[in-house]
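pasting for the record
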Amino acid sequence: MLVLKESSNVGTKKTRRVLVSGKAYRKISACVTRAGRSYETGGVLMGYKVLDTYYIVDVTTPALTKNRSMISFVLDGSEHTRKSAKIISKYLIKPQVLGIWHSHICDIDRFSEQDRRSNTILARSLGEALSMIVTLQPDKHKVKMTTFLVTRDGRHYPCENY
């Protein structure tokens, strides 16, 4: 379970919880493990927001041959829109786009300036958004997920993993 806590330098934003399903975790983990440290990868976080809790039930992952780069990940909007629609169609209660996830090939779990700009644009579009950085751990079979809530004004509230 991930619990969102307010950053000490960012006002009094209410704590929010972020729960990642086993299915979503496995899909992200498999995608990042496959990419290894060769290129960054990413996708869309799908799920529900109930009061102050986010439930990530599924994610999109990119085609294996698309947008490979060691220094950045470019989400293919049409591909992930199509994949999101397919995911939504499988659920009785339709999940929503909650945000995005992407990997870093190094162990840095901080956003680049490009990440911050992209996160702010998405947060303005959705009202607020989750943004997750995923890093491959040294044993290469485990991933670390660091999630942030991004507000319309571009503030990033870090999560604490439990």
